[in-house]
Amino acid sequence: MQFDPENLEQSAIYKLLTGTIIPRPIGWISTVDANGVNNLAPFSYFNLLGDDPPHVMFSTRRDNNSNKDTLNNVLTTKQFVVNMVTEAVVEQMNATSDKLPPEVDEFVHAGLTPIPSLKIKPMRVKESPIHLECELVHHYFLEGHQQGGACVLIGRVIMMHYDDAVLLDNYKINLENYKPVARLAGANYSKLGEQFAIKRNS
């Protein structure tokens, strides 16, 4: 089968691509609005962009031409925290995807503990073992959309927090203790499965 996105319904494109590009890491993004209300939401359109200097990106859909609270908050404050999702917090992560009014604090809704960041205002999720404090450096609204498209946000990582339990010597990550969770399609997620190594020739 061959598919031209110009001739497909948006729902079909979504199903094909989110079922194809897997597994996807989950950026659990915490922000704060102008009134100091916390916001927390998961995004699987998320990844690392580079390490010199360190940057990450995530993209937030704009269903029905409407911004999510996360997008509004980042565009206002220019700050966000990436909290990594693990097996231990996957249920709470799912709860923070609920559609709630802007004045509702997702930390409270999901029974999570907010802790202060060091360099920015958004709070971190205490129950997550890794947090990346970020400052917005660029954003881009996808063009040619029919239902609102999405906005890509790029942040520079200005502070990194790691629980000692997920660290090994020489700054390596202990995967057995980290236990990250990835997004698949629909309601499906994945844990780390069988691992293998291939050495590069150079």
TrEMBL record:
<protein>
    <submittedName>
        <fullName>Flavin reductase family protein</fullName>
    </submittedName>
</protein>
<dbReference type="Pfam" id="PF01613">
    <property type="entry name" value="Flavin_Reduct"/>
</dbReference>
<dbReference type="GO" id="GO:0016646">
    <property type="term" value="F:oxidoreductase activity, acting on the CH-NH group of donors, NAD or NADP as acceptor"/>
</dbReference>
<dbReference type="GO" id="GO:0010181">
    <property type="term" value="F:FMN binding"/>
</dbReference>
<dbReference type="InterPro" id="IPR002563">
    <property type="entry name" value="Flavin_Rdtase-like_dom"/>
</dbReference>
<comment type="similarity">
    <text>Belongs to the flavoredoxin family.</text>
</comment>
<keyword id="KW-0285">Flavoprotein</keyword>
<keyword id="KW-0288">FMN</keyword>
<feature type="domain" description="Flavin reductase like">
    <location>
        <begin position="19"/>
        <end position="172"/>
    </location>
</feature>
<dbReference type="InterPro" id="IPR012349">
    <property type="entry name" value="Split_barrel_FMN-bd"/>
</dbReference>
